[in-house]
Design a protein that fits this description.
With 257 residues, the protein is of the alpha+beta class. Helix content is 41%, strand content 20%. It has two domains: 190 residues, tRNA(His) guanylyltransferase (Thg1) (Alpha-Beta Plaits, 2-Layer Sandwich); 46 residues, no CATH class. The protein is globular and about 70 Å long. The two termini are 37 Å apart. It is an enzyme of class 2 (transferase).
Amino acid sequence: MANSKYEYVRQFELADNMLPNTWLVVRVDGRGFHRFSQIHNFEKPNDRRSIDLMNRCAIEVMKDIKDITMAYGQSDEYSFVLPKTTNLYSRRSSKIASTIVSLFASNFVMHWSTYFGDEKLQYAPCFDSRVVCYPNDQVLRDYLSWRQADCHINNLYNTTFWALVKSGMKESEAEAKLRGSFAKDKNEILFSTFNINYNNIDPIYRKGSTIIRKKTEVTSTSPRTGELVTRIKLVPTAVYDDIIGQQFWDEHPELLT
């Protein structure tokens, strides 16, 4: 940057470097997505098109920003994990948050028609983001467990609520019926009234989506010889596993290194 008499204005910028040697998590949240889902006719209680689009956005972000080791998403939010060793943008919070959320939002618009077909995008979606540092592996796992537990709680409620509404109950009546209820009560309503075993609902809805870099065979054309070449690459891939228990972390120890 060329020196000039105006350069002094840089002194007004605030230093926002995140603590060193800590996990960084960038959480992207949809703004006003209750209205957005109504305007765009999302299916209830879950719209697979929306989930697949959100997952696509997260995958594209991870393809672009190699430092991200994993991501977890549910509903209108996604959390991206950067390792303790990352020095992305010198660990500046504003740069990291703004880059990831803008990439996510632009991919949401770019790939909308791939998943929603003729359902026209009525207005620009909006997402906010923040960066939080977590001091050790256990706290990071607790954060991710919190988000997956939130997914389960919300999905159980929404599944029961919309089952009642679709059976003919008014939304206000369904809200009143479920007010103060526990998980066992909702499971009982689903099973006894609608013959739905909640545990048989697809894991993508109950557990959310986790994006990890999986070893995958990728075939491409060699620019030198024109022949097809197969290589093993780490490709961001969605899985729908329990990340609260120990088994997931035993199977993917590289995520905490």
